[in-house]
Structure prediction request, 642 residues.
Amino acid sequence: MTDEIISLLYEIDPEDLYISIRLIRGEVGPGYEGVDLGIAEKLILKAVNMITSIGEDELSNERKRIGDIGDTLEKVIIRKNQASLFSEPLSMDRVFNNIQKIARKEGRASQDVKLKIIVEMLNDSEPVEAKYIARSLAAKMRLGISTMTVIDSLSYIFNTDIDNAVEALSDLDLGEVGNGYVKEMISHRTKPLYGLIEILSKKKGCPIDPYIREQALMVVQEVRSSVSELREKIERAYNVHPDLALIARSMAIDGPERVIDISVKAGVPLRSMLGERSKSIEDILLKMGGTAAFEYKYDGLRIQAHISKKRDGVDVHLYSRQLEDITEQYPDVVDVLKKRFSGDDCIVEGECVPVDRETGSLLPFQVISRRRGRKFDLMKKVDEVPVQLVLFDCLMHNAEDKTLRPFMERRGILSVIFPQISEELELKGGLSLSKMKIINDIPQGEKFFEQALENGCEGIMAKSTSDTSFYQAGKRGWNWIKFKRDYRSELNDTLDLVVMGGYHGSGKRRGLYGALLMGVWNENDRRYETLCKLGTGFTDDILEDLLDRLEPYKINAPPLEYSARMEADVFFQPRVVLEVVGAEISHSPIHTAGWKPSVDDTGYALRFPRFTGRFRDDKGPDQATTVSEVERLYGLQNKRSI
Ligand code: AMP
Prediction:
């Protein structure tokens, strides 16, 4: 495939090179623009009907019989009407411009315009041209030409060392087959090169003079490494500016060596850097050379925000990890960025997480995922599910590429771009920095990890702080290492927890309880110990109901049989039991369930607790879930993994 592409693209002029790459990839523009073809086949057949007068039924039967829209057109287009025979030959330019016009026309009224353009093109097509135009329009080219294949091809096409090698090799006598390969290499580049390497590598039975063979082998090996060097540069360009057609054109016009100048640009999403995974904190520190910046790993949606200062205000574009433009789905994030931004063109990255309006704590990612794709009731969702953008990296600052600067420097810039930013989640501000700590020993690392879980995160991201801790766009590398608790351990069991305290609600929950402090029964020490703060799973009706149910048990101070480190606005006698589900049991320095001060300073906690809606009126408080059950659940949880 690489060879075919090379011979197709090798002698094409730069403008056509751009279009050819678009066409063979079946794209109208770069992927991140999200403009797709995919014209209904019916419309294509209608166009054929107009220029051939073959009935629509007959066309549709032919299409069914033949099985492919392209093959169908190739066959029937010969029957063009006489009047249509005067035609102007097609050019790549014209076809591509037309395809672009069609793809960018939206709405019903545009159907007629599209039809007109298709008719015009098919009218001037040879049968084989009609075949591929139809396939392109229907988005059925299906050539399967991957990004890597194109990058590979470009690294041969633009490799001037191949031309130099051909010159050097032409002076050597490499036998009939060898000399043949050298000649072919000028335009075919890959196949003959590998053929030549094969003969030259044979020590025995090689008819070439041993001295010449050695010399030639050195030349071809140099070519090989020069090809992989160029491939790496093109790959880097693609990772920071994912548009192969544009890269190819710029290499053709500005020269292949200028590919290193292709850089980040506001409005062009970079491919995301990804982390490796590790099985322990110890292993992470070992790989990071003893020190690393540990950050909470938030469970949300990665967002790459491109912010530019324009004459009439600030322009913001948000991209997902798949480089889709998701600006429209997060108007609240756009607003916050616009408000708090200070500077010129910047690109920053962060995790967008849903936050509980009542408790201010993080919610599971599923809550935010419901926002995707909804256009009409978006504003309602924006109101219901507030989000926080937790920033963790900066890739461009004041129009300067920062990807090749060390991590701590990049992170430092975030506070310059957003002057008031802090590591605390703040509902009103909508923007914060990821929680980070420089860690250089295992216990500290363990503690930070537990804290991350306690705060509703899925683990930690350890980041290298070395001088070479660059932002490796599009790569999974050891500069970032993720470590999280296995989510397969989602608790299947429900827990029956005792209401120990309450927190006054605000906003929509004003006058009601916004959250409750929930506990388990410690059967050995005969006391109630806290396991979580519960603020999710309550409907307005349930909250009203709770107000009445809890009223008789209100007390001024926590009773003696309570062990709590957390404050509450109100305490209750242990009476009301609620059924609760959660994601997992973790350790926590703020809850007291199973807390053994002599062992370590943490108790158990339930992450992402949610009320199932079921009041366990059938259970007395001392029949609630016990500490030993929690301990057992924790043990069952498959422990820590990656
Ligand atoms: P994973 O999806 O498990 O491979 O983990 C990588 C993802 O974690 C990234 O794509 C981010 O969306 C997310 N993430 C959450 N918090 C951070 C953080 N502090 N630094 C980097 N990535 C983070």
Residues 390 and 432 are 5 Å apart (CA to CA). The longest helix spans residues 210-240. The chain has four domains: 1-28+144-262, 37-137, 274-488, 495-641. Residues 272, 274-275, 295-298, 302, 321, 351, 392, 434, 461, 482 surround adenosine monophosphate (CB under 6 Å).
